[in-house]
Design goal:
By secondary structure, the chain is of the alpha/beta class. The chain contains 8 helices and 14 strands. The protein has helices at 10-28, 45-48, 56-77, 81-97, 99-102, 122-129, 222-237, 282-285, and strands at 106-108, 135-136, 139-140, 145-151, 158-163, 169-171, 177-179, 201-204, 208-210, 215-216, 243-247, 253-254, 270-273, 276-279. Its cofactor is Mg(2+). Pfam families: 5-FTHF_cyc-lig (PF01812). Its EC number is 6.3.3.2.
Length: 289
């Protein structure tokens, strides 16, 4: 089951925690021109007034996160290209054949970025965009609505906008494909936060994962912030919880340990690796029967 925090001060606390981490990194490492983190963390003015307080526990936690990010980025960089391609194919095949994917009518996914070494989603996205209730092994596939992320700023704000073809996407300033703000007719593209139906499935990226639901992002906080806001919406609408599935290469999964997390980090329901579907929450386990 997804767990969220919905406190009115959560956004400020998340930004404050990030700023503390940024200040710490400036003391231990020089600026880097690496493309490993294309979405920089928030440095909004709302956090500056809170940066004077020092929390030793939070400081240690962010040191652990920083160390783990470095290790996983190195492992991804050193990953054999043939193995990476094989795992990309296997992971996407698991998703496309899964009942939780086939039975989802509204999906939030992502366009994979090579520079970030994310699990490839090209076949998944193409399948959704080309799906018009076609026959699949004698069964009619449900027509799906697809929403993809668009980063709004450096303060962890992200939208999920509806797309119907690859023509709806443009390269962002960070060289990542994102939906345009308006469609081909000049009308604003539908935002999932204003949609009339709930999301059934989130397919999300990440840098590292454990088998307890822990997810380590790239320090931007975009998905955690978005999912927290979406949780507030579904509570208001009395909608069902979506299934949150993360895609992961084998080197990104931390075995027999927990990723260090804060109360503002959103856990996942399940992982998909080349070895298959890895359920974590009680909701995800229902798909194993």
């Amino acid at each position: 089951m997804l767990r969220f925090r919905t406190s009115g001060t959560a956004d400020i606390m998340v930004h404050a925690a990030k700023l503390l981490f940024i200040n710490h990194l400036r003391t231990i490492a020089p600026p880097s021109s690496s493309s490993a983190n294309l979405r920089p963390p928030s440095t909004s003015s709302s956090t500056r007034s809170m940066s004077t307080s020092f929390d030793p526990h939070l400081h240690h936690l962010f040191q652990q996160k920083h160390s783990l990010r470095s290790k996983v980025r190195t492992a991804l960089k050193n990953m054999d290209s043939i193995l990476k391609s094989q795992q990309d194919d296997a992971i996407q095949r698991v998703v496309l054949e899964a009942p939780w994917f086939k039975n989802s009518s509204t999906i939030c996914a992502y366009i994979s970025c090579d520079a970030l070494r994310e699990v490839d989603t090209s076949r998944i996205v193409s399948n959704i965009l080309s799906n018009n209730e076609t026959e699949d092994q004698g069964h009619v596939q449900m027509k799906k609505r697809l929403y993809l992320p668009r980063v709004e700023d450096k303060n962890s704000n992200m939208k999920m906008l509806k797309v119907s073809s690859y023509d709806d996407l443009v390269l962002s300033s960070m060289n990542i494909l994102e939906p345009t703000l308006v469609d081909c007719t000049g009308n604003p593209r539908e935002d999932v936060m204003q949609a009339t139906d709930p999301v059934d499935l989130f397919i999300i990226p990440g840098l590292a994962f454990d088998k307890f639901g822990g997810r380590l992002g790239r320090s931007g906080g975009y998905y955690d912030m978005f999912l927290k806001n979406y949780q507030e919406l579904i509570k208001k609408k009395n909608w069902k919880q979506p299934l949150l599935v993360a895609l992961s290469y084998s080197v990104q999964i931390i075995e027999n340990e927990r990723i260090p997390t804060t109360p503002y980090d959103v856990p996942v329901d399940a992982l998909v690796s080349a070895s298959g579907f890895i359920p974590i929450s009680s909701v995800a386990f229902k798909y194993c029967h």
